[in-house]
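Explain the record.
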Amino acid sequence: MTGDDSIRFLAGKSALITGASAGIGAAAARVFCREGASVTLVSRREEPLATLTDELRAAGHQVQYVVADVRDSQDVARAVEAAVTTFGRLDAAFNNAGVGALPAPMHVLDEDVYDTIMDTNVRGVWNCMRHEIRAMLTTGGGSIVNNSSTAGLVATPVAAPYVASKHAVVGMTKAAACEYAPHGIRINAIAPGSTRSEMIDAWLQQNPKVEQMLLNSAPLPRIAEPQEIAEAAAWLCSDRASFVVGTTLSVDGGWTTR
């Protein structure tokens, strides 16, 4: 392993990342490892998890993976237990797993779409925080970052369940931050703007004119790369953000400044 632990800002920390098989989660795995963390990767999809784990181990990093569904509390408990058992503790968590849906007016959306989005984006974060907090309380603290969205800060049309779910993530983040900051656990959220990922690429393929609209609507006229979002999450998980509690950090090229 190369690198100077004095400047790698997650050195010595044990971190857990959900939704780690692709996109922002996979980018976060690489960033957290680069910054010195021992990382437990979590996703429902084993094949990309295993490939990413092999890649990171080959580079000298301490990484393991757990196949789990954040909607299932027992699955999450098993993933957190694996992090604690293998790496001795849990210091940081990036609750990144989430789903979206293709844009559609609310009155035509099936109930199944609503249930899937809310179960993953809201119940999933709820499950993760509960088990992560329990682990962190036993060792004196830690840092949790929840992945919300600019849709958690402002509303957009034809995306009502997604907007509701991401607003809920912001609310849960604030509530939990107030409750657990006195116990040494910092809880924050990030609100990414449009970011290259499987989800956004599928949406743009269905709506080819939307990309130019997105580019025209932000001061920084481009779509983010997953690593740019991951860098923000890693910083919030680190001791360099030691006085940041209960905030939702926009990582959106200035989109929400409009």
The chain has one domain: 14-197+225-251. Residues 14-197+225-251 form a domain with the Rossmann fold fold (CATH 3.40.50.720). The chain has a mean pLDDT of 94. The chain is about 45% helix and 15% strand.
